[in-house]
């Protein structure tokens, strides 16, 4: 019997239905998106965990198509914001506009910006000024925007996928660590293989282009989010997450060797929350009603890589956050020797 009185068999059935829906959505997205299986899975995990994703990859790899396809499969509204240095906060959240009525009167009305959508693509977010970045990131954190002294709540589900180009850094404004911490995942997107590129050519240069079918609506998404929040987590699993996070802090005795050498600041408690929420979705996606060590370890890299602040020695030695993450996972043992 579960803690809320429901039978364990009911929990298993819910987990199995979640897994079937998750697999069906991935398969439907796969009809349009070639390759990027990991990015598709991780983006879907973030949506169902209630978080946002920062994707790093070169232009032309299908990031926009991924979000547009996801919005079609999930039957959600979609908007795209191209971040540029001259973009203003009002271009994102909206502004008050003077309207003239047929009777000749005038009144101020709020005109919504592109942030008022369920799925928002913030393309090359590091090209906008910090003031404009903060307008988008405030909406991500609070789920609302304030214009003209009035707070307006964004419709749920609300999901932002921001992109960064890793090779063009001139004239950009890198996101501060406190703002990076607002993203549930940071997901790298790599170039397609030869077979994948051939498949892309076949699908996009032929007579017909696949169109995604709607498989889930807003209520279904919110129900899956609610189910993920109710997944059971044993105390030793939570302890494992806490020890992993502690191992990223260089000044702790239990820190991993690479963290002690190359990390300036470790992951925050928000990182631990991201790991556990993503692990809950992964457990359900596997048809299980409880979180396992494997779920934690699978979620850890995407949830932590952007939360580590590396030092100068790491930059000089060419060490990236992924190397530190791998060392942390290898350094911290599972409680009980599991």
Word description of this protein:
By secondary structure, this protein is α/β, with parallel strands linked by helices. It has two domains: 1-230, Rossmann fold; 232-338, Magnesium chelatase subunit I, C-Terminal domain (Helicase, Ruva Protein, domain 3, Orthogonal Bundle), CATH 1.10.8. It has 14 helices and eleven strands. α1 (8-30) crosses α2, α9 (235-246) packs across α11 and α11 crosses α12 (293-304). The radius of gyration is 21 Å and the shape is globular. Mean pLDDT is 86; it is low at 1-7.
Question: What ranges have pLDDT less than 50 throughout 5 or more consecutive residues?
Answer: 1-7
What profile does the largest beta sheet have?
5 strands, parallel
**Number of extended strands:** 11
Q: DSSP strand (E) fraction?
A: 15-25%
CATH fold-level assignment of the largest domain = Rossmann fold
Mean pLDDT: 86
By CATH, the architecture of the largest domain is named 3-Layer(aba) Sandwich
Q: What is the chain-wise order of helices and strands?
A: HHEHEHEEEHEEEHEHHHHEHHEHH
**N- and C-termini, Cα separation:** 25 Å
Number of domains as seen in the coordinates = 2
Which percent bin holds the helix content? 40-55%
CATH class category label of the largest domain: Alpha Beta
């Amino acid at each position: 019997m579960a803690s809320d009185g429901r039978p364990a068999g009911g929990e298993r059935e819910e987990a199995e239905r979640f897994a079937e829906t998750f697999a069906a959505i991935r398969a439907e997205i796969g009809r349009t998106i070639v390759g990027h299986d990991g990015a598709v899975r991780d983006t879907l995990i973030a949506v169902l965990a209630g978080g946002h994703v920062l994707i790093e990859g070169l232009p032309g790899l299908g990031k926009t198509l991924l979000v547009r396809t996801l919005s079609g499969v999930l039957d959600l509204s979609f908007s795209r914001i191209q971040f540029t240095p001259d973009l203003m906060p009002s271009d994102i959240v909206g502004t008050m506009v003077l309207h003239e009525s047929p009777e000749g009167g005038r009144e101020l009305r709020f005109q919504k910006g592109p942030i008022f959508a369920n799925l928002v693509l913030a393309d090359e977010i590091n090209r906008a000024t910090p003031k404009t970045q903060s307008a988008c990131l405030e909406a991500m954190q609070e789920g609302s925007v304030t214009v003209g002294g009035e707070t307006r709540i964004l419709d749920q589900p609300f999901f932002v996928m921001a992109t960064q180009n890793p090779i063009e850094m001139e004239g950009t404004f890198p996101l501060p660590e406190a703002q990076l911490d607002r993203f549930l995942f940071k997901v790298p997107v790599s170039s397609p293989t030869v077979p994948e590129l051939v498949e892309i050519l076949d699908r996009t240069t032929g007579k017909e282009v696949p169109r995604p079918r709607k498989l889930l609506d807003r209520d279904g998404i919110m129900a899956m989010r609610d189910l993920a929040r109710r997944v059971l987590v044993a105390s030793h699993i939570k302890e494992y997450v806490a020890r992993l996070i502690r191992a990223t802090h260089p000044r702790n005795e239990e820190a991993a060797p690479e963290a002690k050498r190359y990390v300036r600041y470790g992951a925050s408690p928000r990182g631990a929350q991201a790991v556990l929420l993503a692990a809950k979705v992964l457990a359900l996606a596997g048809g299980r009603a409880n979180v396992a060590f494997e779920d934690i370890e699978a979620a850890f890299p995407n949830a932590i890589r952007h939360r580590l602040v590396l030092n100068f020695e790491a930059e000089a030695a060419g060490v990236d956050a992924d190397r530190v993450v791998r060392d942390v996972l290898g350094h911290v043992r599972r409680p009980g020797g599991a």
